[in-house]
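S.,

Sequence below, as promised.
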Amino acid sequence: MMSLPLKSYQQAALDTLTAFAQAAQVKGAALAFGELSGRPYNPDPFGLSVPCVCLRIPTGGGKTLLAAHAVPLLARHWRASDAPVAVWLVPSDAIRAQTLKGLQTPGHPYRQVLADAYGDRLRVCALEDVAQIAPPDWGRTAVVVVATIQSFRIDDTDKRNVYSFSEAFERHFKATESAQPRALAALRELPDALVTADEAAQDGRGVLRGFVGQPRQSLANWLALHEPIVIVDEAHNTKTDKSFTALKRLAPACLLELTATPIVAKSNVLYHVSAQELAAESMIKLPIALAEHPEGWPQAVFAAVRTRAALEAEALKDEAAGAAYVRPIALYQAQNASDAVPTEALRKHLIDELHIPPEQIVVATGSTRELDGLDLSARACPVRHVITVQALREGWDCPFAYVLCSLQRLSSATAVEQLLGRVLRMPHATRRGREALNRAYAHVCEAEFSSAAHALADRLINGMGFEALDVASMLAPASSLSLFEENSAPAPIQPSQIATNFEVTRPSDELAALPGVTVQTIAGAPQVVVRGHIGAELEGQLLAGVRGAKKQEAVREQIAQHNALVAAQMASSARGERFAPVPPLAYRESPQGELWPLEREAVLEAVEIDLLSPEAIDLPGFQVVEQSRQFEIYLKDEQVKLRPADAEQLALGYGNSGLAATDIVRWLEQSLYAKLPEFTPAQREPWFAAVVNRLLHEKGVPVEVLAQARFTLARALEAKAADLRDAAAVREFRQLVLEGAWQVEPDWAHAHVFEPGRYPAPAGSRYTGRYEFRKHYYPVIANLKNEGEEFQCAQLIDRHPKVKHWVRNLEVAPAGFRLPTSRSLGFFADFIAELTDGRVALLEYKGKHLNHQPGEIEKRQIGELWARQSGGRAVFGWLMQTQHGQSLAQQLDAVLT
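The prediction came back faster than expected:
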């Protein structure tokens, strides 16, 4: 079975983790993290020698799948091991059982990831089954142990089975004592790893008397012997001294944390996924169509029932058009038993007043568990309405949840985040054909949209791992979104006005006089009500009105949330406007020939790369140097030392007499066949053999050392293959595309479309400045700093009278627009604008130091070719701070006129 394909943001997160692991091998964790994240590394509590980083994945982002991929990734790039030991820690028994089942079930996407990496050499087990894995299998088989963090977290280690002396591990420790005595001695450095005199005295069997001061033969110590890769799910729950001590007892080689809500001061967040990225990959539904119901709960419930029914009608049409089965479900958060509308009162209202059939309603609370045993995704299941009060049990899922109806006020409702998380998830992680089914819906008992939006934003930010800039794309008034699919263009939407109350000790006259500001007195205290975007001047006045660093930080967070909500209402995409189509390039091999998409791969089809040429088998950046009985591996500017512990064990599981060049070649083929699919096995294997034999016989590298350095060698071969492809592509691209051997033209029939809600801006790159861009098509702007030359260019584009709206282009397909080049990435122009006369413009800003590089010259040439062949429907601008005596503004004028 094929593994579940990774989403773009998941691949980006894993690529960043790979880059970190590779760099940490050379530079250490602190430098590697700083270079990749731009932030200082926090070494506590594991020190600099044990890398500990976090992937911040919001609700619905697929943390478990990422964790499964991370095991072989870290094994390869940090541990340099084909048979790692991993300890996978989760926060509860319910999640442990769920995770274990997925990792053990053949064909399940989680299991398949590990099976693709290790085949039959794989064991996934719970703690109680670890002793059943025979001692010889450790080091030959990949072992993944799934457990709760609570299994290891305790003050008294003799009261927890994982730390107790166990005869089941006697054979394991005896085998290690004879084979690796130094590894066993290393356990003495760990907390609570040794048998104490008190422990021996309390042992009624007398077994421990001979082990006082020796490492305990325990499950925890056995895992620690193998320096496991530790995966920590929901890692924000483990940031206590007790948890840190428990993790240290495992002697981890590295730790990877996954959570939606990290404790920022205690976590090294290496990669952060945004809501926009999740939505663009159809992992969550956006926006949340939010409807406020000041009339009271009966109106909210009636509207939720009507919304759900309309969605079911849309789902039937979608299924008739070939989509997968979906039965939209509404989740209701009833009031507490002592309030007016507890669960049974709501059930009675649904049945008696709204005529919902009883079999379509279930109640899920601590005492009423009507969900147990139900498969809500089954076609035969009649359930359409689920009533709860607080948290639903962990591990429960509702894949068809679409509508949230809270009868509690959002500002005080408990566990509403859990219900929101269910409603946000996209069924089957696949975008639906009917647009109404790509959104989530919330009906709440609030007085006005502004207060409802603020309350929901608070829950999304504080409880679900999203940020203010996420919220900019997440909320929309339900009144602005039709439930029904229409062929006609949507009518322009009048934005709802967002108002935010700020508590200011003494509002100044200057503050009160600013546009959009109203000063009120509420309960004897002055409050400032702000409508519209908050710029730098207003922000400064608001901060001046409060005292203390904590209060000022709270005001800054309020401002960020307010501006995000304002942006969500004002962006062209939120108002229902369409962006003009932007055509990609295509080619014909003859004037009357068929039109084909122009891609780098099409150019390379005409190229035959000779992998056995002297250039191909030479790896000048790969060197092995012997230093004082140790070996250092160099790959270009990187240096990796083979550690003394590794030198005792020959790689690939062979003895001195059994290891040969053919074993390394076979391993390279198994490791690289998926990474080099453009070459056949008949091409790859002779190439690997030629490279290995050259290193062994011409460079004099011992076969055992080359086997140990196989992971670095594999990286060198990947890089060499990329270099060979690039060199061939540059030659062929110039001849076929730029010099006119092919007829190249824009393909308007297959134009790129910037869709509302499909702008996966990476979390760490989003614009956070206070300057208000009024014409950007989406509520957020990606890859734009608050200052600098590109920022100035963006301001000029935004203010230009000929620009209707514009997009800061993303360097990721399919959301971003790309022109092909001989390089694998292609050319993603910085800015794309639709002009008031209907033309489209590609605009690239270039610093003077880059202007004459070969790759940049090729970008300019392909951009000019694209515009020249458009028949006047498109323009291209190559912009610099000054060029040919023109300022940046003058260059922009010249391009757009």
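The radius of gyration is 31 Å.

Coffee later?
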